[in-house]
Amino acid sequence: MVHFPEIPTDISERLEQILNLSWKVFLNQYINYKYDINLEAPFQLHFASILKRIGEIYCIKKYELFIVDLEVTLDDQTKNYVDIVTSLYDKESDMEFLVPIELKYKTRKQSAEDVGAMDVYKDLYRLEQIKSGKYKDKKEIPFSYFFFITDDHLYVNKPRSGLRTIFKTYDGATIQKDYEYKYLQSKTGKDYFKKNGEFVFKSNYKFSWSKSKNNSRWFLKLKI
């Protein structure tokens, strides 16, 4: 006897499936030019729309509610805003499970790859801080996600020297826990350090880029 594929009742597992399926749908619409997306704002709007639709389908019990919010602050102290926050509320247990999401959309025309690489680390560090933070009762953050789209090979290929040998984003690069990420050998790095300080992560993270045969963009999905 063959058992039919069940949607998991565990909410964390379900949120994982929602995120992965939504990203798959978004990428396929993107590479087939269903939408004209050349900036981060339309990336945010279209991806959020897909998350909303798929998340609602994955509400398999009548007392569940799936919510998608844009530009939400989850840190009362810093007031930093997160691009997207999805949540699945279980009325029976009165628990809300949230997934913060940060997005990046960078092009060759924008250049400034050194600042862009440090911004990536800043977003990842903030997601890690949010995940390990303390929240009101009946709220839980099982994980968070970072998504990046670019046509700029400098983010994807390994550099020979400079700031991006420290703030590595190339395919296969790893963020190492307990390492102090900062770069003081350039004005750009010094200015960024003065404003944001160093980034010290609690876990290791690996950059694994993907690419479509028929599209000039690279895509990154990184779970925190």
Report the sheet with the most strands, covering strand number, pairing sense and barrel closure: 7 strands, mixed
Mean pLDDT, all residues: 92
The helix count comes to: 5
How far is the N terminus from the C terminus? 38 Å
Number of strands: 11
Query: What best-fitting shape do the alpha-carbon axes yield?
Result: globular
**Helix/strand/pairing class, anyone?**
alpha+beta
Strand content: 25-35%
Query: What is the percent of helical residues?
Result: 25-40%
Give start-end ranges of low-pLDDT stretches: none
Order of helices and strands: HHEEEHEEHEEHEEEE
The radius of gyration over CA amounts to: 18 Å
Explain the overall architecture.
This protein has 224 residues and is an alpha+beta fold. 32% of the residues lie in helices and 25% in strands. It has 5 helices and 11 strands. Helix 1 (11-31) crosses helix 2 and helix 3 packs parallel to helix 5 (187-196). The model has no long low-confidence stretch (mean pLDDT 92).
